[in-house]
Amino acid sequence: MPKPAVSFQSVSKIYPTAQGGFKALHEVSLDIREGEFLGLLGPNGAGKTSLIAILAGLATATSGTVKVQGYDVRKDYAQTRQRLGIVPQELVYDPFFTVREMLRFQSGYFGIKGNDAWIDELLHELGLADKAEANMRQLSGGMKRRVLVAQALVHRPPIIVLDEPTAGVDVELRQTLWHFIDRLNREGHTVLLTTHYLEEAEALCHRIAMLKRGRIVALEDTTTLLSSASHSVLQFKTDDALPDTLASQARVTGRVVQIPAREAGDVERLLAALREAGVKVQDMEIRRADLEDVFVAIMGDDAAPQATSAPASR
Ligand SMILES: Nc1ncnc2c1ncn2[C@@H]1O[C@H](COP(=O)(O)OP(=O)(O)OP(=O)(O)O)[C@@H](O)[C@H]1O
């Protein structure tokens, strides 16, 4: 077996609290293969950021080991840091540097001189070419996020880690970013992505790991995970309240109602129940289960009530 790009072995994390400690990660073991695009999904508080902070060397595991291409993140920090390009969730930057200065400075941090050709390519690919000489403080939030992506990639890391890179960013940036990350992945870079936008994960990731309350509860190829959902979904819009029997099985987002249906007979029973309750139904369709349906089925009551789909299509 070739060495994994990243290997988490029995990683636990206990945060000190007034109550004596909170265990955010429970013996998490996960290998990310060289060249794969892995999605790490989980509701708020599942432990995704804790796991990435440990990988990045920003937090230490209470027990367990993490290796990057065979190097231990604690013992061989410099070796692992060199191999990782981490795009953080938070916007942290120095407002007095220009974009180009930031990227040159970051190159220097990794001991790279004369990196301008790659810096120019990054700026071009991320739609920042005309902002190279702008000061960081003059940029919009979305532009700053692009610079953070460029900063994480300045040393051409073989492993790219994106922690919710598209949270609150517009469609244009998402498309630019995914186009570029997809290209880097096809060129051999390994990608680890956390996101709450399950459509993005479904479209991009080869494999999905799901984390629930600090434990891995699913780890499958995306296609296998999707085909494991044996049900279809009856989806419609309505302004009426659902009867209790249906409300308990339904996912309701505004006017849109989605109810799992295992077979044709189920659909007939659901429609009869809706008719009997006087629920007026519009735009009805029966569709195959998607990653969001699988996620909700696996997470149960933990599935986040907040948006799990992208605000606009890619
Ligand atoms: N410094 C800390 N002290 C105490 N508890 C913490 C600390 N950092 C995180 N936690 C807790 O650990 C759990 C995991 O948090 P983490 O941020 O890793 O989750 P997450 O999956 O990244 O969530 P999100 O999707 O909201 O970013 C949460 O219950 C959180 O409250």
TrEMBL record:
Keyword flag Electron transport: no
Domain ABC transporter: 6-238
Keywords: ATP-binding, Cell membrane, Membrane, Nucleotide-binding, Transport
Matching SUPFAM superfamilies: P-loop containing nucleoside triphosphate hydrolases
Entry coiled-coil feature ranges: none
CDD domains xref list: ABC_DR_subfamily_A
Record flagged with keyword S-adenosyl-L-methionine: no
GO molecular function: ATP binding; ATP hydrolysis activity
PANTHER family xref list: ABC TRANSPORTER ATP-BINDING PROTEIN
Protein name: ABC transporter ATP-binding protein
